Model the fold of this input.
Amino acid sequence: MPRLLCDAMLGQLGHWLRAAGHDTLIAARRTGDPALVTRALADGRFLLTRDRRLCEIRGASRLALLLRHDRLPAQAAQITAPLGIDWLAAPFSRCLLCNVVLRPAPPLALNRLPETVRATTETINHCPQCDRLYWVGGHVHRMRRRLESWRAGDFV
Ligand SMILES: [Zn+2]
Done:
């Protein structure tokens, strides 16, 4: 699976890549262009950017993909074939905030959830970095439907 680095303007796309299970860093707003290129080179990541100048930095041409669109579905459509993105690679296996791979929630953490969620949810995952809990609810179902559409080539 490709590893990715999104510039700060592409945070939303980065979250969806994480939702699909792809290892995706999202640059902080103040990160300079040369630092982004250096990081992508060092990590072996594709660099996704809306910044044409960034693509002209030495070394960037091999790893940077200039996104032409502002809207998320069009961005997703543009990167799918060139980067071989599988939008159902490993859905909801990473923290959307930290990019860390989720683990099954430790029993103590489950106490933080409402009884109704605990009683009705089979799989509850946990981010070891930010301590967030993830489970399959209505929001995840909606996101999953969108990932399925994208996988089918329907960029909604
Ligand atoms: Zn997290």
